[in-house]
Design a protein that fits this description.
2 helices; seven-stranded mixed beta barrel; Transferase; six-stranded antiparallel beta sheet
Length: 306
């Protein structure tokens, strides 16, 4: 019997083959352009850049025509443009080059100018927020991480100290009301009786600021999480703008860092026995998930000498 292994979605098409590179430029509205040097292809009309959502049907690709770059002296550079007005479903989109009826080839990343993404401020008159960050996969290929959200609660400064977590942020696309609150929800889906587990809440204080959106701050006590959970686990942070409003996931996506999980690291703080109640000693640590959503992890601490 011969065992087969599934080829990773973002693996190179032909190991060792030199693939074309795409230089990426972002704009402050959320658009992206891709410049590819392809000598001898400029006169063709059937060259395109394909974006395929990973682990989905290839037929659902987004096709961007490649056209000669204006001002290029030798006419060998082609440009594909992903406008900010074209929504991309959340996920990881792998980038390919296709010419005519030829097979689609993975692209490699070239130089990227992502400066307009830093401290990006969304317009409040929109109906959706699209964030796209090009990046190199672990195999060295070009992909684009996409987020599609609205309203959006952007996390700012995070302060884990004094037995709790203070979160500063800005809310876009919704109004803060006097009943606004921060909600910590257990990562596990439902309670044993089939209903949703009760979130741990903290009041939200509005913060006036001249920028767009609504500034807010909230302090979540680790002891409240420990007493409610009674055991180690992960808690997702949400902002509920008002009593009757839908909650909004707290995340940090308005910059040029595609994966903050291994870059922005925060210390674990002890939750004392009194704070943790019957659950005993624990530590709590905020972190960003692979999707740049803000969460808190509770972990048991072993007794000394165990």
């Amino acid at each position: 019997m011969t065992a087969t292994t599934r080829r990773p979605a973002d693996a190179p098409d032909v190991p060792g083959e030199t693939a074309p590179r795409a230089d990426c430029t972002a704009d402050s509205a959320g658009g992206l352009s891709f410049d590819i040097a392809l000598p001898g292809v400029a006169e063709r009309w059937d060259a395109a850049l394909l974006l395929r959502l990973r682990d989905r049907d290839p037929e659902e690709s987004v096709r961007l025509p490649l056209e000669p770059l204006s001002g290029d002296p030798d006419g060998s550079v082609l440009r594909a443009t992903l406008p900010s007005t074209v929504p991309l479903e959340e996920g990881r989109w792998d980038a390919y080059l296709v010419i005519g009826e030829g097979e689609a080839r993975r692209l490699l990343p070239g130089c990227s100018d992502l400066r307009p993404l830093v401290d990006r401020v969304p317009r409040t008159d929109r109906t959706w927020l699209g964030v796209r960050i090009p990046y190199a996969t672990k195999y060295g290929n070009l992909s684009v991480r996409s987020w599609l959200r609205w309203p959006h609660a952007e996390a700012g400064d995070i302060w884990p100290a004094d037995g709790g977590l203070t979160v500063h942020g800005r809310l876009y696309g919704a109004e803060l009301t006097p009943t606004a609150r921060l909600e910590a929800r257990p990562r596990r889906a439902a309670a044993p009786d089939g209903g949703q587990e009760r979130p741990v809440t903290a009041p939200v204080t509005p913060v006036d600021a001249p920028a767009e959106g609504h500034g807010f701050t909230a302090r979540l006590a680790y002891g409240d999480l420990a007493r409610e959970a009674g055991a180690a686990g992960d808690w997702q942070l949400w902002l509920r703008p008002g009593e009757d409003a839908e909650p909004v996931r707290v995340a940090r996506i308005l910059d040029d860092i595609v994966d903050k999980h291994g870059i922005l690291r925060y210390p674990a703080r002890p939750v004392t026995a009194d704070e943790a109640g019957e659950s005993g000693g624990m530590t709590a640590r905020p972190y960003y998930t692979g999707a740049n959503d803000l969460s808190v992890r509770l972990e048991d601490t072993e007794p000394a000498g165990s």
